[in-house]
Amino acid sequence: xxxxxxxxxxxxxxxxxxxxxxxxxxxxxxxxxxxxxxxxxxxxxxxxxxxxxxxxxxxxxxxxxxxxxxxxxxxxxxxxxxxxxxxxxxxxxxxxxxxxxxxxxx
Length: 106
Ligand SMILES: [Mg+2]
Hints:
Bound molecules: magnesium ion
Helix content: over 70%
Number of helices: 4
Mean pLDDT: 94
Radius of gyration: 17 Å
Order of helices and strands: HHHH
Distance between the termini: 18 Å
Largest sheet: none
Strand content: under 5%
Low-confidence stretches: none
């Protein structure tokens, strides 16, 4: 089982282009990380709403959580861009190869 067709590198390019187009390409790496951390808090809040709702959790709550997870993904890819990472997709596959061997049963 090996993932493919992720197009993560294309998404990373999109994030870089989108930031420039919106004038969001002015943050330092440190500021970007703080903004990412804020988004992680938003994921926690959205998840907490679903946990509290229990069986009453609805699609609106799941959509909100999905949006916040999407924000986190955008910031993660932006951080990778800003740190000079060029092939996040290749690194993901390489790391998963490492993880596969790390957790394989003898
Ligand atoms: Mg958000």
